[in-house]
Amino acid sequence: MGIENYGGGQTAQADVLVVTTNDVPGHQVTQVIGEVFGLTVRSRHLGSQIGAGLKSMIGGELKGLTKTLVETRNQAMERLVEQARARGANAVLMMRFDVSEAADVGTEVCAYGTAAVISKL
């Protein structure tokens, strides 16, 4: 698996900047729009469950599950950005992920933050 399977985040050309900080250096917040989130729930397929069970007996990274979680987080973040853009934001401040089990059938991933309009100083 290549490096693209283990991470995510935005490209340099993104029209909605997503940061985990309260502010953006060199910018001022001109409008706070409010909370936005992107949510997805994914189930694991039988093959990955069996493979994960076997791998857990001998140890090591569960690469199939890692790839699935990366894809899930990226999808939640894409939905977060879509929500922010639809509400007129050009930034999401204080972005965080929340991950939980969903009724024992899958994993719920929520990306959330504060939609805002920022401008250069």
TrEMBL record:
Coiled coil residues, start to end: none
PANTHER family for this protein: UPF0145 PROTEIN SCO3412, UPF0145 PROTEIN YBJQ
Family per similarity comment: Belongs to the UPF0145 family.
Taxonomic superkingdom: Bacteria
Name of the protein: UPF0145 protein F0344_20165
UniProt xrefs under InterPro entries: UPF0145_dom_sf, UPF0145_YbjQ-like
